Amino acid sequence: MFIAIGFMVLGGVLGFLWRKKEFGNISKIISLLIWVLLFILGLEVGGNPQIISGLTHIGIEALVITAAAVLGSAIAALLLWKRINNKQKGLHEE
Amino acid sequence: MKSSIIIVSFFVLGVLSGYFEIIPLSAVENDISFYVLCCLMFCVGLSLGNDSNTLKRFTRINPRFYLLPVATIVGTLAGCAIISLLFPGRSALESMAVGSGFGYYSLSSIFITQYKGAELGTIALLSNIIREIMALLLAPLFVKYFGKLASISVGGATTMDTTLPIILKFSGKEFAVISVFHGFILDLSVPVLVALFCSL
């Protein structure tokens, strides 16, 4: 896994060094690679009877985890928002 | 939205091909997808490093807003860890790995499939697609009840591209730079956090 991240860092460094150059096609290549990989993920899912039979359960689990993740981040954002506004009020009063 | 539909189509096409055994599974041994993944990561890095504007833009942000990506990450992970108690078969770390996609469904599901198998990979794909859809459809509600930063937080890693227009509409144009900065940091954190929770 960290090998894959190593490749991202390598790409980032090279991209930064060659930032005068235009890589016009890079986003197309990224889309293509993503399509290939998700097609392969689909193949693995379709060829696995256990996953196919549990698809509703998987869907519900995904929905519940997402709801929790989204609610958690919204609450964290609210706390930060209140904190920033309070500080700004404090600054104006000084 | 159009790109999400294309991506889901490829996934569904793969499912059908696998289900009806049009393409044998042996044709896509795990090694191949790992090499493709490395190419993908290299290209993602290249496109981020190559964009000289991204780094320049961030110097103009009110320093307090630098904390927003941290809030998003902490809030998301806390929510995932708590909700994993509902699923006896699911560990908190697996749930947090799914949450660490932050709406970046393509990359996170690919990573999780590679290291935790196709079932959790599929949960990650669905979960992160749902997150992006929620960010697009529910932005006005989040702004109303959780403040103007909530629409950015909920958008996760997508706030520098797909959900940016919605955020600007409901939180205001002055949040453009914060939103891009937030998306940029979350984008970078996806592979790192997913890798971390899969290897722990």
How would you describe what is shown here?
The complex is a heterodimer of chains A (94) and B (200). Chain A is an all-alpha fold and 94 residues long. Chain A folds into 2 domains: 1-49; 54-94. Helix content of chain A is 86%, strand content 0%. Chain A contains 4 helices and no strands. Chain A is flat and about 60 Å long. The N and C termini of chain A lie far apart (51 Å). Chain B is mainly alpha-helical and 200 residues long. Chain B folds into 2 domains: 1-28; 66-199, no CATH class. Chain B has helices spanning 2-19, 30-50, 52-57, 68-83, 92-99, 105-116, 118-137, 139-146, 150-155, 164-171, 176-199. In chain B, helix 5 packs across helix 7 (118-137), helix 5 packs antiparallel against helix 11 and helix 6 (105-116) packs parallel to helix 11 (176-199). The two termini of chain B are 34 Å apart. Classes of the chains: A mainly alpha (94), B mainly alpha (200). At the A-B interface, helix 1, helix 2, helix 3 and helix 4 of A face helix 1, helix 2, helix 4, helix 5 and helix 6 of B.
